[in-house]
Write a structure and sequence with these properties.
Layout (H helix, E strand, L loop, with lengths): L2 H6 L6 H7 L8 E10 L6 E7 L5 E8 L12 E4 L5 E2 L3 H17 L7
């Protein structure tokens, strides 16, 4: 264990692990992880991707048409978004679900893994 890790306390996992979960401080963007993929009830051929922070308190929703003129339609495990584009998760159960899934995704995937 490094001196920095000892000084940081028992919840410190090191810079590599901390960076994987936290915002990119250079751009102030927040990393959110894919927690839900659903099809729209209102529109045909529309998929809704929901990403959330690892604490489940904030979310980002992206809509994507299933039909496209390009073949490049990759969905990554995580995306970086501006804090102003995040919504609040008000429901405690939904917050817990988002947190659990975001943490699971962060543990098993790199942010740019194609899902």
């Amino acid at each position: 264990m490094t001196a920095h890790a000892r000084a940081a306390g028992p919840g410190y996992f090191g810079p590599a692990v901390e960076d994987k979960f936290m915002a990119d401080t250079a751009t102030d963007e927040v990393r959110v992880w894919l927690v839900e993929r659903t099809y729209s009830d209102d529109e045909q051929n529309l998929i809704i991707l929901t990403y959330a922070t690892t604490d489940g308190e904030r979310y980002f929703r992206k809509e994507r048409a299933l039909t496209s003129f390009t073949d490049a339609r990759e969905t990554t495990a995580a995306v970086e978004v501006e804090p102003t584009n995040l919504g609040d998760v008000d429901d405690p159960d939904q917050r817990a679900n988002y947190a659990a899934e975001a943490k699971r995704m962060a543990e098993v995937h790199d942010p740019d893994d194609v899902i």
